[in-house]
Structures are given as structure tokens and as C-alpha cells.
Design brief:
Two copies of one chain form a homodimer. Chain A is of the alpha/beta class. Chain A has 14 helices and 14 strands. Chain A binds a DNA duplex through helix 2 and helix 4.
Chain lengths: 351, 351
DNA sequence: AGAAGTTGAGCAAACGTTTAACCAAAAGGA
DNA sequence: TCCTTTTGGTTAAACGTTTGCTCAACTTCT
């Protein structure tokens, strides 16, 4: 089947205040005032009715560009995400939208791929005033982006990530999340607990590693660096390879805490390849929840993070800046807790 | 840790053409012309240099609202998706962005939740001229949306879905996809092939069912309505329940074709609960690929659809309409083919 | 009745950009 | 020398809104 678009099927020309004013036999400003809905405007009942009727019959809608030009505001936020496919992203998106909407702002999502970065699209659009502020929801972050943003002195917020050049960020308490995971494993009797760490150049990975060590410490378990494997971010393949390395060590672990969702999935693959039964032979805890965690085999026990809340706060902060309102906001969110599914069980070493 | 936003940290005021003109001691229009990059403009080398220098040192960026107001165009497209978490969405998004960018347009994604529908946000934003055209990437579609859009006479394109009230849609050949899946199963020796069908009020589900029947016919296999189960869309739970019903029939199937990705995942869960080994005891084919298909156990054999291409075309069509260019575009894309993984195998009934 | 206040609406300017129309000065042609 | 053309700009208008100011026509008060 083929779609033919004929030439010259002109699109309708939107009606303007002028059209409404002409139709109602009044001046433009009074139309603007009446349609603004402001109860302060003094206008006769008759005029008001005529204007309302004309606006409706012409299906008038105020032009956003003209409004923004006048107001020097678009009341629009942009949310840049590097990877739309990442399972943690959707909840952040919904959070940002919720936060924006409740303050009368719109939020749009844009995919920050390599090309967008090299063209500095995020910056240009901000500078052109296409939107008032920017939220960067990203784990894979090129530092140059943040520096450009700081230099531009335009409002932006980092989500789920910190950067030395700015204090405009909102994150979850990754260390606390790691501690919850490790505590759970320790309580199940595990002692040799491995950690699949994300690239340590990222602050999130570092904090998770920190939490891992802290909690081991708290339980009097010695830290064994051979039980920590760094793996490449965001791809399950990386987690798989790293998990294999862990299993091939001389004293393999009985449980593992994976630094993120895709890593956990990769690790699961490796464990199965080694013929290990989860959770009977080996326990696995992931970080960040996702609907997918329920359907994989076995369903994954994870530490859930308040991603929605984080998105909402990011929008709130940004809007406070835009409206030049002072505000004091907790910048680090505590984990929501453990979601127990079927990938963890008491350590065999107990029996 | 707490973030304090101090009051009165004024944001920088963007510079305008006027500022540049003053700084370079020229009039505004010549600045506009020089910065437009149009080689036709006749200007002395000296003036050009002064303007360029001033623009750079003031870090001038043209104001998007003013431009759009003048041009009556925003060169922006909006892509509304009902469910950001749906695994097929990311590729469509990337396709739309690619198509938009190559034509000089920007594309933004917005999440079309219930509230957005009830507030008709998609319509309002279009009517306000926040963007020039609209792409609806949705399977869960409320008809009223399309009707509103048609009535508004503003440009929009439906992606992955058809609707009687418009011919502005671009889809994949679902029937052909179903045929590929069934043919694969038949070639593996399966005869009792079930179908998990999406809600039959959706055209996509209907076409997949159609393809299923056609291909059975082509192989001389009688259609057995007890082998078809309708299940609720987009949730793996639905697929699970439906699959269980199929397995509890008197003459259970040896293979199943699931109408979409989440359905296939749900079916997998049900099959495992019944103690069936995949693919030894039972074969499963899904529709639509996703990175997740590789990591679940077993990796899912699916029929892959050209989702990226579909997104790209949607953007192309929309832009052709906007620029009042006639065009002839294939409206139905053929499947990319079967992605063979580990969820299908020769029928046991053969041995 | 005259002054003062209120009501209802119009006029004009501004937001930043683009573009058509215009014009002085320099250059070229007879 | 005078007329025409080219060069290198300028002036003015327009896109659709919003908002401060103005102002005529009533109303109310003294």
C-alpha cells in the first residue's frame, strides 16, 4: 500500500487575537484580557460573551511562540536521556513530567546520542530559548557537556549523577543501596560476596563500591579485592564476562551484588552457563528495579530506588531556579528498599 | 545533603541582534543577514568581520520564539508515546529523530499518559503551535484522539497503527510477520500451533491473526479456534494467563506464536510453570525484537520488524506535508525477518 | 451643577526576528 | 559631464501577544 500526499492541500491558518477581535467587534487587547481568565479585568457581560463566542467559533488558540517571545519564557523543560532503552529511564521520565506539570510547565524528552553531543544540541537549544531549563538524566556522561552547561550559565540539573563542576544535581544514595543489598546477603549466611562494579570513573559506581565495603566491614567480613570486578557499563555482555572471571577465581563467591540492572542480567547468564542454580547454588542481587526484573528467570531480587521521586525533584529544583525562588531541597534520596524475588536464598555453606 | 538555592542569582540575559548590531556599529538587518550564512548577501569584508566578532564575543544565539513567530514554523515535531517502557518504543524514537534531523527538524518525545489524553495535551500543544506536526507511536490508542486530530486539520501521522478516520499512518506488515513465524514453526514439524492474540479491537492484532490463519492454510493445516487465545495487551501477566489456558486444553499445542514481546515473555513463564522445557518440549516465537530478547532464558526467537525505518518514514511523511511537497511513500513496511535464537526447535512429535 | 471617581474599552509600544523596499555613494559607460 | 548600474548598507513593517497608559462616558458625591 502506498500513501500519496497530494500537493496544495493547504493546512488551515490558525486564527489570531486579531481575528477574534474583528469577529467580536472589539479591540485586540480586550480580547487578550478576557481570554486570560484573569478575574480582575473589568468588562461588560455583553462584550465578554461576544468575545468568548467568537473565540470558540474560530477555535482560537494563543500562539505559543508569540507568547514566549513576549514573556521571555517558554514554560518548557527538556529532559535529555542518553539511552531511551535503559530500563531505569522510563520512571525518571514520568517523575520529571509529573514535577513539571504540577508547576504548569511542559517537559519534553530528547535522546542524547553521540551526534547530539558532538553538535552540542543540548546547549544550542537551551541558548536559543527553545526551553527554559535542562535536565540531564544520564549515567554515561561526558564531562565536557557539564562544563559547557556551567559556562553557559543557563539553568540545568543533573539527575542520578554528580559532577565536580556543579552542585546542581540530585541523586539516590547509592552507598545505602549497596549496603541494603550486602546486608541482605549477609543475613542469608553469605560470606564470600562478590561485587560487579560499574566503571569506577563514575561517581555512582564508586559510591556503590563504597557501600559494599562499608557493609562488609560492619559485619566483620574482610574485604577481598579479587571479589570485585569492574565491568563495562550498560551492556549485559560486560556483566556476563565479569561474572565469568569471578567464577573462575580460586575461591569463588557464593553471592554477588551487581551494580546495575543490565549487569545483573548479564551475570545471570554467566551463572547459568556455569551450571549454577539460582538461588540454590548462588545468590544474586541487582540495583534498580524494572518490570523486566519480574519476568526474567529467576525473578530478580533488587534494591529499589526512588527514581520517580528523583525525576520529580529535578523538575522542582529547576523550576525554582527559573522562578528565582529560594529553596532548600534534599539532594540525596534514600533507597526504597529491597524487593525480594527469587534470586537470593540462604547460603549452601550453612547446611 | 541538602541543596540550597539562593535568591536573586539572576540568570544571564541572552544577547539579541540589537546588542550585536550596537556592538558592531551596524544596523540590525545586516547582522541578521550576515549571520544567516546566506552567501548571496553582499557585505564588505570589514563589516562581516566586525559582526562575526561581536556575535561571538556576546555569544549570540538567535531566539527561537522570535524566529518561529516570524516564520510561522517551529521546525519541531512531537512524538507522543503511550508507554515509554515498552521495549519497541526506543527504536521508533530513534527512527523518528533520525528522520527529523536529516530534514533539519527537531523531534521531542512526550509521554502520553491518561492525564495527557484527558487534557487533550497533544491537541492543545499542536494548536498553540508549539510544534508543527505530531507523530503518534501507539498501540493502545483511544479513537477519540485520532478523531480530534482529524477535526483539527493539523498534520499528524500514526505509527504502527491504522485508524479508519485517516490514511495518515505507517505500519509494518503484521500479517507477513505472522506468516514468517508460522512458516518457521511448520518447517520445524509443528502442526498444533497456537496463537496468543492481542485484543482483537486493534487492527494490528487482527492482521497478525489473519497472517496466522493464512499461513496455516498455505500448509494445509486446519484452523482450530481453540488454539487461539486473546490476551490483554502490553502486560506479560496477560500472556501468562492465556498461555495457561492453552496448555490446559484437551489437545494442547506444541508451539505458540505470541502476538507481541511482552506476551511472549508471559507465555514463557507459564510454560516453565508447567514444567515444559523450551525449546525441547515446546517452541515459542515472538513478534518484535528487543535487547531483552537476548538475555531472557531461553533467548527468544522473534520476527523482527523495521521499527527504526518506520519511525524515520513517519517523520519524512510529516515533513513532506508540512513543506507542502507531494510525495509517494510505501505505507506498509515488510518484516526484516526471523531472528533465530533458542526458543524454537524441531517438534518432538517427529521423533 | 460641578468636581471627583469608576467603568469599559482603545491606543501604542514592546518582545527579537526576517524581509521587502529604499537610498546614498561609488563605479562604470556614453 | 550626465545617466545608469552596482555596492553596501538603512529604514520600515510584520509575525501574535501582553501590558501600561489614555480616555470617553457614566456614576456618585458635595
Amino acid at each position: 500500500m502506498v500513501l500519496e500526499i497530494p500537493m496544495g492541500k493547504r493546512l488551515p491558518i490558525p486564527s489570531t487575537l486579531k481575528d477574534v477581535a474583528n469577529s467580536a467587534n472589539v479591540s485586540i487587547p480586550i480580547v487578550s484580557r478576557v481570554l486570560s481568565g484573569n478575574p480582575e479585568v473589568r468588562v461588560s457581560a455583553d462584550t465578554r460573551q461576544r468575545i468568548l463566542k467568537a473565540a470558540k467559533s474560530l477555535s482560537y488558540h494563543p500562539n505559543a511562540s508569540a507568547r514566549s517571545l513576549k514573556a521571555k519564557r517558554t514554560y518548557t523543560l527538556a529532559l535529555f536521556v542518553p539511552d531511551v532503552g535503559n530500563p531505569v529511564i522510563p520512571e525518571i521520565i514520568r517523575g520529571v513530567e509529573a514535577g513539571a506539570q504540577s508547576a504548569g510547565y511542559a517537559a519534553f524528552v530528547s535522546h542524547l546520542d553521540e551526534k547530539a553531543v558532538s553538535e552540542q544540541r543540548y546547549l544550542t537549544w537551551l541558548q536559543e530559548g527553545r526551553f527554559d531549563g535542562l535536565i540531564l538524566a544520564t549515567a554515561r556522561l561526558e564531562d565536557s557537556i557539564v562544563e559547557d552547561l556551567v559556562r553557559s550559565r543557563r539553568p540545568f540539573v543533573l539527575v542520578n549523577r554528580r559532577e565536580s563542576s556543579t552542585n546542581m544535581h540530585i541523586t539516590v544514595d547509592d552507598a545505602a543501596g549497596a549496603r541494603i543489598a550486602i546486608n541482605h546477603l549477609v543475613e542469608l549466611g553469605h560470606r564470600r560476596i562478590a561485587h560487579l562494579a560499574g566503571p569506577l570513573m563514575f561517581d555512582t559506581s564508586l559510591r556503590r563500591l563504597q557501600g559494599y565495603r562499608q557493609e562488609l566491614d560492619a559485619h566483620g567480613i574482610a574485604y577481598d579485592s579479587s571479589l570485585v570486578q569492574e565491568y563495562s557499563w550498560q551492556t549485559w555482555e560486560g556483566g556476563k564476562v565479569a561474572m565469568k572471571r569471578l567464577l573462575q577465581g580460586k575461591k569463588p563467591p557464593t553471592a554477588v551484588f551487581a551494580s546495575n540492572f543490565m549487569g545483573a542480567v548479564g551475570a545471570l547468564g554467566a551463572l547459568k552457563e556455569f551450571g549454577l542454580k539460582i538461588p540454590e547454588d548462588f545468590s544474586l542481587v541487582g540495583l534498580h528495579d524494572s518490570p523486566i526484573a519480574e519476568v526474567i528467570d529467576p525473578p530478580l531480587t533488587v534494591v529499589k530506588m526512588p527514581l520517580h521521586e528523583m525525576g520529580r525533584r529535578a523538575a522542582e529544583i529547576l523550576i525554582n531556579i527559573l522562578e528565582d525562588r529560594p529553596c532548600v531541597i534534599p539532594q540525596v534520596l534514600t533507597p526504597e528498599g529491597l524487593v525480594m524475588r527469587k534470586s537470593t536464598a540462604p547460603c549452601r555453606c550453612l547446611s
